[in-house]
Structure formats: C-alpha cells, structure tokens
Amino acid sequence: MTDMPIDPSRIESDNAKRNPDLEADYAALGDQLDRRGISIDAIVQAVRGFKVAVPSWGVGTGGTRFARFPGPGEPRGIMEKLDDCAVIQQLGRATPSVSLHIPWDRTDPAALKEKAQGLGLTFDAMNSNTFQDHPDDPKQPLSYKYGSLSHADKAVRTQAIEHNLEVIEFGQAIGSTAITVWIGDGSNFPGQVDLARSFERYLESAKAIYRALPEDWRLFTEHKMYEPAFYASVVQDWGTNLLIAQELGTKAFCLVDLGHHAPNVNIEQIVSRLIFAEKLGGFHFNDSKYGDDDLDAGSIDPFRLFLVFNELVEAGDALSRLHPAHMIDQSHNVTDPIESLIRSADEIRRAYAQALLVDRAALRGFQDENDPLMASECLKRAFRTDVSPILAKARSMDGGAIDPIATYRASGYRNRIAEQRPAAAGSRSGIV
Ligand code: LRH
Ligand code: MN
Ligand code: MN
Which Pfam family would be a valid example here (predicted)? Predict the structure, then answer.
C-alpha cells in the first residue's frame, strides 16, 4: 500500500500504549469463553474475515429535507472521498471496499482504479440513480419526477434503463461485479398510478437491465416502503422484491436495507425467508428509529442487528452459497462521517461476533423442549457478552488501531484536510 493518509507510526505508537490493557482484557475474555467451550482465537479469525463496504456518499456530510450543515474538510469529489474511505480502512481494517453511486461518482474509471489501488481499496456493488434529475448529465435530459423504470412514458423508461447499462459498464471497468437498483418510483395519491400496470412496466425495464448483466455479475434490487412515494412505492417490500428476483432469474437477488421497513417489522425473519428462497443478495446496514433515518449501525437497536446476524450464522452453508454483499448505507448529519463509519463497521462486526457465541446446540434443545425463557436467555447470553477485546485484537492483528476513533482524532486528519479542502456551502436540501 502506498500514499496512506494516516502515518502508520502513529497507529503503532498509539497501539503500543493500549496493548497491555488489551492483552489483559483479551485473556480475561478468553478464559470466560473457554469455560463456555468457545475458542476466542477462532472468533477473532472469523471477525478478521468479515468485511463490509463503505458507501462513497457516506463520507460527505448528509442532511435532511430541511437543511444540510456541512462539516470541515468535506470531500469535493470521488478522489477525495476515496482518501477518506482509506482512513476508515487503515484504522478499522473492516472496510477494504467502496460502493459507488453514479452519476455522483462519475469520473475516468482508469484513474479511479489507479487511485483505489494506491490506497489498497477495491469496489463493491455499483448503484444507479434514477431517483433524481441530473441536469448536468447530457445522457439523462428527461425528468424522473413521475418515475423512472416504471414511468408511463416509454422514453423515460428507456433513458433509465440505459443509465443502468452505463453504470454496469462503468463498474466493469473498475472491477465491480454487482449493481444495486433502487428506484423512488411510486405514487403519493390513490389513483395517481395504476398499481398493476406500473409494476408490469417496472418488470419489463428490470428485465432489460438483467439481460445486459455480464456473466459474473449479480443484480440486487432494493425495496423500500415509502419515501419519496408516500402512498405506494412500486418496490415497497420484500414480497415484491422476491417476486422481482424470481421473475428475473438466477443472477437477481434481493437487497435488504435495514432502514427500509415499517417500525417494528421483524427484519431478521425477512432475512431468514430470503435465505430459504436463496434470494438474499446483501445488506445496506444502518439503524433507524422511525424510518429511513440512516443512523449509525447499531446505534439505536443493537439487539436487532444481533438478531439479523444470528440468522446469518444459523444459516451456515446455505449462506456461504449466497455470499451476500455487506454494505453500509448511512447519512451523517451531526457526526464526523469518518468516525461514524469506523464505529458502524465495528458495531456490525460486534453483532457478528456475538452471534458466533450463541450456543446453537443448547438453543435447539430449548426450542425442541418448548422452553421459551431459556431459548431467549441463550440468545441474550451471547448478546450480553462484551466482545470489544475480540474486535480490537482483530484490528490490531491486521495493522489497524486498537482504539480507531482515538487514533483518528489524535492524527489530526480532519484539521489537515480542512486546510486543503475549502469549506462547502450549506444548502436547503439534504440531498448530496
Ligand atoms: C434509498 C437508498 C438507496 C440509495 C441510497 C442513497 O433510500 O437507501 O440505497 O442508493 O439510499
Ligand atoms: Mn440503501
Ligand atoms: Mn435508504
């Protein structure tokens, strides 16, 4: 790796200070797990193998519909976004790949690839964007105000299909092997759109994209209950999403964004069903209180995140065949995006490590004996275990920081780039 944004000696010296405490905590947890018949080293190895992609759009400060309050040193384009992604990976060692959004990140693919290689990064799933108008894009002159892939006008549908084909071509040039399609299509009023015909038009368009997929690519469709369409979204839930993946074929899979469901929906059960149907394509991890809040993963309901991972671990071989994509999809309005993404990747790994601690034989026994209390306790015992030493050990073994946020703050990276990158203007809308 070359051109790394954080001086490696800073990570080394910070780790040297923290290592004695880590070793003591690690040994204590190791003893505890040993008594439970679990090898701590095996869990560390599994955690080290677990990676999650960061969203290029997540390193800029987000916003809401009401306002955006830019932070210092915001990346001005995709190359600077990659620098920030490299910081996250250098310190956390859980995020070696980046998921791009076109046209937000459109640039020369060869230059992009070279830049990423220099930073030790690769690219995960590509994202198309037909949920906004793109006045600067000569290839997309028609408006998506009334939809894209399901639009009543064939010319708009064709434009949206062609945009997706361009995204695939771009992705091929940078080594990606998947495209995620999320559309904002739908209606705000009963009667505005014919529910059946709009879905048929969507399917016809999605099939055109699917036909153009390269042999080794996968197509992920992402459902979302509402926003921007408040009455009826065309791809509103996992049922419709599964229907789509089944209609399209073997390279089509469903993507689950954790924030795209009604409050209280049992997302882990959706995950289980999609695994059963062999159609779980991947995740957009985030957390939410009310809707698509895009808050840091595990910041509101870490137990739910754990329960999702419990299903993934439970699925075993069935999951390895599906090898779902792990991506973060967050918007950071009040925190430093780099810190939020480091923390989120860590929380996702935490949920995974905790799920690995579940005593599955005991759980099965409690289930078969109809002992709900002990079955629930069995999960809680794993969830309550503080696996922080495992996460820190995994990071430090891979050259990352034992306390990545402390090391990031001490590095002065944000202040340094704030001097190089002029302050961005605030805006009314939160859209990137
Ligand atoms: C839609 C969504 C989708 C987009 C991203 C910016 O709410 O989750 O994944 O690509 O936000
Ligand atoms: Mn998403
Ligand atoms: Mn979303």
Answer: AP_endonuc_2
Q: Is the CB of 292 under 6 A from ligand 1?
A: yes
pLDDT interval class at 160 (50, 70, 90): very high
> What pLDDT does 3 receive?
73
User: Cβ(313)–Cβ(383) under 8 Å?
Assistant: no
Structural contact between residues 98 and 54, judged by C-beta atoms closer than 8 angstroms:
yes
Residue 24 belongs to what H/E stretch? helix 8-35
SS3 382: helix
Give the per-residue pLDDT at 91.
98
**CA 273/CA 253 separation, integer angstroms:** 13
| Average pLDDT of the segment spanning 403-407 | 98
Cα of 181 vs centre of ligand 2, distance in Å, is 9
Report the pLDDT value the prediction gives residue 425, as an integer from 0 to 100: 67
* C-alpha dihedral, 288 to 294 to 298 to 300, nearest 10°: -30
In this prediction, residues 242-269 reach a mean pLDDT of 98
| Ligand 1 binding pocket includes 105 (Cβ within 6 Å) | no
Exposure string for 88-97, b = 16+ CB within 10 A, e = fewer: bbbbbbbbbb
Tell me how long the chain is.
Answer: 432
For residue 95, how far is its CA from the centre of ligand 2 (angstroms)?
17
- Nearest residue to 103 via CA among 153, 46, 144, 61: 144
Atom 11 in ligand 1: residue holding the nearest Cα: 329
> Is the shortest distance between the CB of 288 and ligand 1 below 6 Å?
no
pTM of this prediction? 0.97
Domain 53-357: CATH superfamily is: Divalent-metal-dependent TIM barrel enzymes (3.20.20.150)
ipTM over 0.85 threshold: yes
